[in-house]
């Protein structure tokens, strides 16, 4: 799949997409939502419970029941890899656990996640049906060119009220979630050249040519 396509995102562009979502939604203890935490109507706790033990490793499904069926997980993995395939510098999105990330995301109890779940689950139903209609195959079993054909159509802005309006909205949401999941992994951050959270012996400031190109100044005014 080396043919350029509008669905093959510029990985640097995904930085903007990452700003639209936070991975912090995965760090909540769902056990605090159980009946044991309720003493009376008057004393019923608000919110989503206490913070988890950040020193303990967690795996997908530890906080809340996951949503995807096995067939949907296969379709999700295939769609992730159309959006961010493996290349010479990194593995594909599904190989880095983005399927689990999206499953966790749409399964979370937060208001925004619940809204995203409706878009994603509806889109996956459409994707499965459309692949069967066109090719007689599950999306995960379709050829690379067939998957790409569907995604290319969804990557274009669909006219309001058209049959592709909702599927295109699904694809946009799914693409953003894929980029968020990928670029918050160590491999994804390395792919971006991110070097934050490292001690520096000294800091010389931003490169002078970059400052000039952006029309900025590194002068500090008091």
List the keywords:
single chain; 222 residues; mainly alpha; 44% helix
Characterize the structure shown.
- With 222 residues, the chain is an all-alpha fold.
- The protein has one domain (11-213).
- Helices cover 44% and strands 0% of the residues.
- The chain contains 8 helices and no strands.
- The protein has helices spanning 14-18, 70-83, 98-107, 111-135, 144-155, 165-183, 186-192, 208-213.
- Helix 2 (70-83) packs across helix 3, helix 3 (98-107) crosses helix 6 (165-183) and helix 5 (144-155) crosses helix 6.
- The radius of gyration is 21 Å and the shape is globular.
- The N and C termini lie far apart (54 Å).
Task: Return the structural class.
Answer: mainly alpha
Radius of gyration (Å): 21 Å
Strand content: under 5%
Average of the residue pLDDT scores: 81
Main sheet overview? none
Q: What is the helical fraction, as a range of percent?
A: 40-55%
Number of strands: 0
Return the string of H and E elements: HHHHHHHH
Quickly count the domains.
Answer: 1
Q: How far do the termini sit from each other?
A: 54 Å
The count of helical stretches stands at 8
- Shape, please? globular
pLDDT below 50 for ≥5 consecutive residues: which ranges?
A: 1-9, 12-45
């Amino acid at each position: 799949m080396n043919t350029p396509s509008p669905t093959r995102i510029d990985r640097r562009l995904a930085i903007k997409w990452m700003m639209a979502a936070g991975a912090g939604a995965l760090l909540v203890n769902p056990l605090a939502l159980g009946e044991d935490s309720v003493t009376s109507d008057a004393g019923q706790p608000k919110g989503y419970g206490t913070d988890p033990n950040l020193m303990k490793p967690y795996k997908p499904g530890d906080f809340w029941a996951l949503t995807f069926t096995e067939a949907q997980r296969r379709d999700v993995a295939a769609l992730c890899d159309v959006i961010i395939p493996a290349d010479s510098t990194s593995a594909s999105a599904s190989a880095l656990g983005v399927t689990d990330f999206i499953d966790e995301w749409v399964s979370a109890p937060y208001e925004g996640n619940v809204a995203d779940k409706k878009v994603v689950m509806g889109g996956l139903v459409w994707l499965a049906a459309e692949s069967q209609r066109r090719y007689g195959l599950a999306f995960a079993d379709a050829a690379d060119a067939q998957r790409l054909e569907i995604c290319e159509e969804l990557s274009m802005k669909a006219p309001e009220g058209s049959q592709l309006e909702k599927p295109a909205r699904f694809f946009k949401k799914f693409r953003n979630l894929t980029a968020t999941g990928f670029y918050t992994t160590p491999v994804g951050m390395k792919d971006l050249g991110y070097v934050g959270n490292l001690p520096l012996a000294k800091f010389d400031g931003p490169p002078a040519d970059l400052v000039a190109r952006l029309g900025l100044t590194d002068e500090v005014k008091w």
